[in-house]
Specification:
With 272 residues, the chain is of the alpha/beta class. It has a single domain, classed as 3-Layer(aba) Sandwich (Rossmann fold), CATH 3.40.50. It is 35% helix and 17% strand. The chain contains eight helices and eight strands, in the order αββααβααβαβαβββα. The protein has a six-stranded mixed β-sheet, sandwiched between helices. Strands 1-2 form a two-stranded antiparallel ribbon.
Length: 272
């Protein structure tokens, strides 16, 4: 929402506040309209957001970027065949196409976790941010003996498609990195959705979410730390979602862990 500055306040006042936020505050006006410069900036931001929604995922380049983190890197597609269909039919973005099962089935095993990278509503977000976040999260998991499934890239994917991928790979839990809906302040924001024992009846209430992952939001190291912390908590307590609160920030204010996370468990085959 645009806040109109009182006339008696000079621009130095608003400049000091603009350093604290990416929100558009204290915009100059010309009569009843915005001044030319902020109006053009607003139109540019809107165009970038629209472009991000329609920008295609370069799955081959992303696979090359992710190589070496947890090989092999598998590329599959949802049931949405085209971008417009994906935008108009969210249900198709939650299902894999017919060829995906044949690609995933040979890699089924007793994995502790599966990582899924989906374009969502901003392919640009995962193209840019997925690798550094995964690189930071996978290391701590492996140091605790976690077995990590091959990385899976999904074109035209929604959050729920991670449940299907986890079931196909027989992973105990899933982390979906996905491009979030672009806004006027950021067109490349990535989200992480974590789910314990996903299945056909899983709802959003069963997931934990880390949103606004980007250099100007939640940074790569912080996002990776939160992902690993939540996964350890999920494994220790046997659930995820609204019952599991992200308390990872308590370490930043000097509090000590009251109980150590349990050693990683071998995953049970995913249901559904």
């Amino acid at each position: 929402m645009t806040v109109h500055p009182p006339q008696h306040l000079d621009d130095d006042f608003w400049m000091s506040l603009r350093r604290l936020t990416a929100a558009r505050i204290g915009l100059p006006r010309s009569g009843a309209s915005l001044a030319t410069a902020p109006l053009l900036d607003l139109k540019l931001a809107h165009s970038r957001a629209r472009d991000a929604v329609h920008e295609p995922l370069d799955a081959a380049r992303l696979a090359a970027d992710l190589a070496g983190l947890s090989d092999p890197v598998l590329s599959v597609e949802s049931a949405a065949e085209q971008r417009l269909q994906y935008l108009m039919r969210p249900d198709l973005g939650r299902r894999l196409n017919a060829q995906a099962e044949a690609i995933l089935k040979p890699h089924a095993g007793r994995w502790n976790v599966a990582f899924v990278v989906a374009d969502g509503l901003s392919a640009r977000a995962v193209q840019t941010h997925a690798r550094p976040v995964l690189a930071g999260a996978i290391g701590p998991l492996r140091s605790k003996g976690w077995q990590i499934a091959p990385l899976v890239i999904v074109r035209h994917g929604r959050v729920g498609i991670g449940d299907t991928v986890a079931a196909a790979l027989r992973a105990a839990c899933v982390v979906v990195l996905i491009g979030e809906r672009p806004g006027l302040s950021a067109a490349d924001s990535m989200g992480a959705y974590l789910t314990w024992h996903p299945h056909a009846q899983t709802t959003d209430a069963d997931r934990n979410c880390i949103s606004n992952i980007r250099p100007d939001g939640i940074g790569y190291d912080e996002a990776a730390r939160k992902i690993a912390h939540i996964l350890f908590a999920m494994n220790s307590r046997g659930y995820s979602g609204v019952r599991l609160k992200d308390d990872s920030d308590r370490f930043l204010i000097g509090r000590r862990e009251k109980r150590a996370p349990a050693e990683p468990l071998l995953p049970r085959p995913a249901r559904g």
